[in-house]
Input
Amino acid sequence: MFKSSFITILGLPNAGKSTLLNAMLGEDLVITNPKAQTTRHRIKGILNNKNYQLVFSDTPGIIQDSAYKLQETMIGAVNSSLEDADLVLLVLDGQHPKTSQFKDQIRQLSCPIVVVLNKVDLVNDQDALQREIAEAKKVLDSDFVIPASAKEGLNISKIIKTLVELSPEHPPFYDDGLVSDESVRFLVSEMIREQILTQYKKEIPYSVEVSVSNYNEKKNIDEIYATIYVERESQKGIVLGRGGAAIKNLGISSRKRIEGFIKKKVFLSLTVKVKKDWRSDDRQLRYFGYLKK
Output
């Protein structure tokens, strides 16, 4: 009996959704960072086993109001991922679950809901945690509420076991060798953006988009040419840094991250260009894949 399912991962920003997905996959597939709105696209991660295949959709963190067209597309990615979901995995911050914020949305769903209270390694009051678990079961009408820590690996196997038990009998949707249906180019661009989130402060991480223009696979090394797009000339100067020091450091950290993922040596070239107000421009959002062409 083989089981497979599409699972949509929901949660507020900073609940640790992406970190949890990486822990379940055993692979640093999706980018992670403490900054809110790290995830912009709906990204699929595939967990394969001889008895099951779980296809996860990591969605942008749920935001209430959109200040840019980009954020509108992020909200759309969340909604569209629910349309074909067999299961929903709702990830809450175990320190501050904010369960009631999801009450109306979750109760409208017809598929099973598994709730994860993540980051419980940071919760000192275990009695309070038990009360939060009981509250989540009641408010979200779910029998499946699991305290966990993606960082510490706590209850990861229990989450997977629960999802498999709730999954329908079905042949695999993808070849068993795939960890994602995303292209390597896209994943590489996300890894560069991850390093930007880590290295730069204030508005820069949110004003930046990354596009891989050329990816040349060679026997001993992959050559990657990527462009970092910003919205203003002043931002370009910040990304470059004095004497190009900042972008040099970005290139080093990004190359190491990519090499760790593809298990191969990488030559990485980064350039910076300005696309004015791209986050509010439909044409640019289509170019970057946020809107359908």
